[in-house]
Amino acid sequence: MWRGTATPLGLTPASIPAFPTCLSPLQRAARTCELSGFGAGAITDRDLVEWDYGKYEGLTSAEILKQNPNWDLFRDGAPGGESPAQIGERADRVVERVSRSWWQVLPVEPSKPKRS
């Protein structure tokens, strides 16, 4: 969680200039943003939502590998969910929007496009 990773880096709302915070529409991203102190005025961005695992949703990587030992998320994607190309397109849209803006952005999403 944020406290375990950002605190040692010294990131606090007071330690960096004010800028918009973009977050995933998922509740845990909003909670992480709130706990970090960056929640005020946060902008929800659908493109920051985590990977749609389709039929693998709710399974751990170990459980998926029992069903499909050669599976690799970044190569194979998620059956009934998103492909690596679709995730790449979402990430590209976020990068494009941020790069066109004159301000810096702090993206907040529940984990990362690939779950742990």
SSE inventory with pairings:
Elements: H1 2-5, E1 21-23, H2 27-36, E2 43-44, H3 61-67, H4 73-76, H5 84-100, E3 106-108
Parallel strand pairs: 1-2, 1-3
Q: Main attributes?
A:
5 helices; mainly alpha; Rossmann fold; 3 strands
Q: Can you characterise this structure?
A:
The protein has one domain: Phosphoglycerate mutase-like (Rossmann fold). It is mainly α and 116 residues long. The chain has five helices and three strands, in the order H-E-H-E-H-H-H-E. The protein has a three-stranded parallel sheet. The N terminus is likely disordered.
User: What is the strand tally?
Assistant: 3
**Biggest sheet, open or closed, and with what strands and sense?**
3 strands, parallel
**Second rung of CATH, namely the architecture:** 3-Layer(aba) Sandwich
**Helical amount:** 25-40%
* Spatial gap, N to C terminus: 13 Å
Domain tally: 1
Whole-angstrom Rg: 16 Å
What is the name of the CATH topology? Rossmann fold
The CATH homologous superfamily is termed Phosphoglycerate mutase-like
Strand order of the largest sheet: 2-1-3
Topology pattern, helix = H, strand = E: HEHEHHHE
Helix segment tally: 5
